[in-house]
Amino acid sequence: RASRREAGECRRQLQARLVEMESLRGAHQSLERQLQELEERHSAEAAGLQDTIGQLEDDLRNTKNEMAQHLREYQDLLNVKMALDIEIAAYRKLLEGEETLFNMGSVGLPALSSLPSPTYSFQPRSYSSST
């Protein structure tokens, strides 16, 4: 009887252990699925971030190119301004000289026409920017 009780107790323990083992197997499979889902989600998120980085790098390159173009335009406009300032100064000198001659009253208009007239030619420089 004692042996039968002991064998029955062993069977119940074995049965309990088998149920526990099946339960742990199911938990293990569930955790494996969760791990795989997390890895897939993180891979998708990493790919999305890589796309965002690529777009931002493209935007940065485009912005640098635009800035270089604006710099070239600014340099051209600055060159034009400097040339115009030089021409304005030359005309101002001519006007001052004419005013002086006019105030003195000794020189007539035909003599003024023999004064040299300023000329300039604008040639924009080409600048290369390193991006």
UniProtKB/TrEMBL annotation:
<comment type="similarity">
    <text>Belongs to the intermediate filament family.</text>
</comment>
<keyword id="KW-0175">Coiled coil</keyword>
<dbReference type="Pfam" id="PF00038">
    <property type="entry name" value="Filament"/>
</dbReference>
<dbReference type="InterPro" id="IPR039008">
    <property type="entry name" value="IF_rod_dom"/>
</dbReference>
<dbReference type="InterPro" id="IPR018039">
    <property type="entry name" value="IF_conserved"/>
</dbReference>
<feature type="domain" description="IF rod">
    <location>
        <begin position="1"/>
        <end position="102"/>
    </location>
</feature>
<dbReference type="GO" id="GO:0045109">
    <property type="term" value="P:intermediate filament organization"/>
</dbReference>
<dbReference type="GO" id="GO:0005882">
    <property type="term" value="C:intermediate filament"/>
</dbReference>
<dbReference type="GO" id="GO:0099184">
    <property type="term" value="F:structural constituent of postsynaptic intermediate filament cytoskeleton"/>
</dbReference>
<protein>
    <submittedName>
        <fullName>AINX protein</fullName>
    </submittedName>
</protein>
<dbReference type="GO" id="GO:0005737">
    <property type="term" value="C:cytoplasm"/>
</dbReference>
<keyword id="KW-0403">Intermediate filament</keyword>
<feature type="coiled-coil region">
    <location>
        <begin position="21"/>
        <end position="80"/>
    </location>
</feature>
<dbReference type="InterPro" id="IPR050405">
    <property type="entry name" value="Intermediate_filament"/>
</dbReference>
<dbReference type="GO" id="GO:0099160">
    <property type="term" value="C:postsynaptic intermediate filament cytoskeleton"/>
</dbReference>
